[in-house]
Amino acid sequence: MDTIEVNNLNRQFLFRKSHVGQSKAKVARDAVLKFRPHISITPYHANVKDPDFNVGFFKQFNVVLNGLDNLDARRHVNRLCLAAEVPLVESGTTGLLGQVTVHVKGRTECYECQPKPAPKTYPVCTITSTPSKFVHCIVWAKDLLFTKLFGDRNQENDLNVRSTDATSSSEHVEDVFKRIKDEDIEQYGRRIYDHVFGYNIEEALSCTPSFTVR
Description:
The protein folds into 2 domains: 6-103, Rossmann fold (3-Layer(aba) Sandwich), CATH 3.40.50.720; 124-206, no CATH class. The protein is mainly alpha-helical. It contains 7 helices and 3 strands, in the order ααβαββαααα. It is globular. It has helices spanning 24-35, 55-59, 71-84, 124-129, 134-150, 173-179, 182-206, and strands spanning 64-66, 88-94, 97-103.
């Protein structure tokens, strides 16, 4: 059910800037068919946990290749593959590390046989565009919004705290706030609010493509 975002373009080579906002599954199919026109690909722009994708649906396949980005969906597919007795090839990445495991009912342990550690990092595209857990919002505020507000002043950043005096990189956040004049606090707070809940949302909406049904 995922759609293409700008921050996908540096690592997902099937997509181009003109595809932003469109279905990943459908665009990937069209891209692959350009250099492999004789194969058959059926894209589904939907949630893998929808009732339509049941045990009977999974039984039609010889093998299932997983490339999901959250544990809940991976566990769901693992259970369906066990019920359908279809081999599962599970893959994923964390930072610069990658892993691939093969799970065959009755021959190997399943995906859930070993406890999975809680992730220490989260994909930027998830926490900025499709947060589904409380921790996603906390990570967004801590790692993204906080950096924008109090990060490197030498970088182009329209939310960075400004003052008439230079601020050292070792200066405490509370000291930075003290540097802001009282009459500027309300204006600065409004600018942050307008950016996060106005500009960012308008930018996301502007990427929504228009589709023609024929």
